[in-house]
Specification:
Blueprint: E1 2-8, H1 27-34, E2 37-39, E3 42-43, H2 49-58, H3 62-65, H4 88-94, E4 98-103, H5 113-116, E5 120-122, H6 124-133, H7 140-149, E6 157-159, H8 168-184, E7 190-195, E8 203-205, H9 233-241, H10 249-279, E9 286-292, H11 312-315, E10 316-317, E11 319-322, E12 330-332, E13 336-337, H12 341-348, E14 378-385, E15 388-396, E16 400-404, E17 411-414, H13 432-448
Parallel strand pairs: 1-7, 1-9, 2-12, 3-13, 4-5, 4-7, 6-8
Antiparallel strand pairs: 2-11, 3-10, 9-11, 14-15, 15-16, 16-17
Length: about 475
């Protein structure tokens, strides 16, 4: 079958009305869920664009593919690590597929069709040329970011200087429609990824979507009263890094309303692409995947953006798969992860999944069946961002979340009684047994996914109290 992958950037799980959003409306994405499978316990392996996208492409966790931070961070030390591995496009093209990509890439060798095995590729450089040909002088950093993000009164949001048509994501949707037309007449099946920029900040939203929601209608986040007591100090430093400590809830209501407007704009573009798919007679032969790379704090815990935390808002993500011939309108709750997308694409195409891939295909779940031995937890990692290298690992079960922070306090949250993750229980005597069990589960994940944090070598025997080696016993 054909595969159409709609990839957003920094979209929260709770931004979709099919996921319970009380105000934000996403009817087109909801329609995908009605005709497919909504994975309600999907998580990102890493709440940072480049590592997360490299995991989507390769089916590997960041500590394996080596793309540990965003492009350019740490003098570009990690910028080319992922090139040691092949992506889904390589295996699909080898299996007889036409492959296409349009939009945000955020990985090395952007536009290099030979390296990444895309037959058609419209990059952000092509978008820049598109604007120039229309006589539009635009630079996101100058035109949108600087006046919306920095400064005492900046609140990261506002109307875009671009129209809905000329906005980056409008260009992506139009290009995806053209690519569908080009591929529709071919004899080969196709795989197309349409990668939007939004709803990533700056929340510069084109009209009329920038006015879709009233700030006063935004209900207060339950964890906005965060005090950061008994939590890693780096979370408080984030308030200083993004100048958000002075923002009141009224300020954040404006930001969230703009973000929701951005989500509704993207929803309209999903509808545009789906209409083209149906018009071309391809809907009955195409699996459509809608997801994102990671979430967005958006004022939860008073934090902006993403990065130095393992909160749900950053890691719990939307994932919807609509597949011809499969069950419709079902909800699946097992823990799935962004590393599972690559093997799912290959499985859907009838291509063998390489042994080194750490993710698992989701195809059987589209029939409502959970494979025997499926994981009972979700594992995520963080390795640093911009100016700061540090290590975090997270294991999330139904009841508990444990965050391993070698640089500071570990975190333990009761996800049933404290879903807002306000109260860190890791240092409390009464939870010592829970902490021990979660550390054991963490160690199991580290060993299974070959994360070197858990290595015992002739030079190393104790990983910052996470475990004690046999030698020390």
């Amino acid at each position: 079958m054909n595969i159409l992958y709609l990839l957003t950037d920094q979209m929260r799980f709770d931004a979709l009305s099919c996921n319970g959003a009380p105000v934000c409306r996403t009817p087109e994405i909801d329609r995908l869920a009605q005709h497919g499978t909504n994975f309600t316990s999907a998580y990102s392996v890493n709440a940072l664009c480049t590592p997360a996208r490299a995991s989507i492409v390769t089916g590997l966790y960041p500590h394996m593919h080596g793309q540990l931070s965003n492009m350019g961070n740490f003098n570009g030390v990690f910028d080319r690590q992922v090139l040691r591995w092949k992506g889904y496009s390589h295996y699909l093209k080898k299996g007889g597929y036409q492959t296409g990509y349009i939009g945000k890439w955020h990985l090395p060798e952007e536009g290099n069709k030979e390296v990444w095995s895309f037959d058609a590729w419209d990059t952000d450089r092509d978008y820049d040329e598109y604007l120039k040909k229309k006589g539009i002088d635009y630079d996101m950093g100058v035109s949108e970011v600087q006046h919306l993000e920095w400064g005492e009164d900046a609140a990261f949001c506002g109307p875009s200087v671009l129209s809905a048509e000329d906005h980056h994501d409008g260009w992506v949707a139009a290009g995806a429609c053209r690519m569908l037309e080009d591929f529709a007449g071919g004899e080969k099946p196709f795989m197309i990824c349409a990668a939007f920029h939004g709803p990533h900040f700056p929340y510069a939203v084109p009209k009329p979507f920038c006015d879709s929601y009233r700030p006063e209608d935004v209900p207060r986040w339950e964890n906005f009263n965060e005090t950061f007591r008994d939590k890693p100090v780096v979370q408080q430093k984030e308030l200083m890094r993004w100048n958000t400590a002075q923002l009141t809830w009224i300020d954040w209501q404006k930001v969230i309303a703009a973000y929701w407007g951005y989500c509704s704009y993207l929803d309209s573009l999903v509808g545009k692409i789906m209409s083209k798919l149906e018009h071309l007679g391809l809907a009955e032969d195409t699996m459509v995947v809608f997801s994102t790379d990671h979430g967005d704090m958006l004022g939860s815990h008073r934090l902006f953006n993403k990065g130095f935390n393992m909160y749900e808002e950053d890691h719990h993500i939307p994932l919807i798969i609509s597949c011809p011939g499969k069950e419709e309108g079902i909800t699946m709750n097992p823990f799935v992860n962004t590393v599972d997308l690559m093997p799912t694409f290959l499985d859907a195409a009838g291509c063998p999944v390489p042994e080194e891939v750490q993710g698992k295909s989701l195809m059987s779940m589209l029939e409502g069946e959970v494979p025997q031995g499926w994981r009972q937890e979700s594992f995520s990692e963080f390795n640093g961002y911009e100016s700061t290298l540090l290590t975090s690992r997270m294991v999330r079960t139904r009841k508990w979340k444990y965050v391993y922070n070698p640089f500071g306090q570990d975190e333990l949250y009761d996800m049933e009684s404290d879903p807002g993750e306000l109260y860190n229980l890791a240092e409390l005597q009464g939870f010592v047994h829970v902490l021990r069990r979660m550390r054991k589960k963490m160690l199991g994940c580290l060993m299974e996914y070959k994360d070197s944090i858990a290595e015992v070598t002739s030079w190393q025997s104790n990983s910052y109290s996470l475990f004690v080696s046999d030698r020390e016993e």
